[in-house]
Amino acid sequence: MNTQLQPARTAAFPETQIRAAISEWWRQQIKERADDPFAPAPPTGTLFEMLPAIDSLTLLEGLIVIERVLGWEVPAKCIKKGGYDSSDEMADDLVRKLRKLHSNPTPRSYSSHANQRRK
Q1: Contact 2/111 with Cβ under 8 angstroms?
Q2: Can you tell me the distance from the alpha carbon of 94 to that of 88, in angstroms, rounded to the nearest whole number?
Q3: What phi, psi does 54 have (nearest 5°)?
Q4: pLDDT tens-digit profile of 22-65?
Q5: Using alpha carbons only, how large is the chain's radius of gyration in Å?
Q6: Where do the domains of the chain lie?
Q7: CB contact at 8 A, 82 and 55
Q8: Tens-digit pLDDT profile for residues 80-100
Q9: Are the C-beta atoms of residues 74 and 63 closer than 8 Å to each other?
Q10: Which among 60, 68, 73 has a CA at the least distance from the CA of 102?
């Protein structure tokens, strides 16, 4: 692990770009699931109807697109446990949390694993 301080965040918070990146990533995830011929149709009247559209584990992959916009690693703890039912719900939740991190940066370890994941 490469440990260094996170880059300074002096630029304006890129809310529009984050929302666009989340929306595009979400559409791609839904499209991939719809195009999967082997994906079973969730049974009706079961617990599957209560599950989020995209779970929190899958959303960890979505952080990569957000990190590209921000230029710094997004902590996994920003993702709501369980996941989100829509891209708007995800964007609203993450923008609120990321705006706080952006406006109040504190020295913390910055891992280069985000850069490695992008390759």
Answers
A1: yes
A2: 10
A3: -135, 125
A4: 999 988 888 887 776 665 555 565 554 545 567 777 888 889 99
A5: 16
A6: 15-118
A7: yes
A8: 888 888 899 999 999 999 999
A9: yes
A10: 73
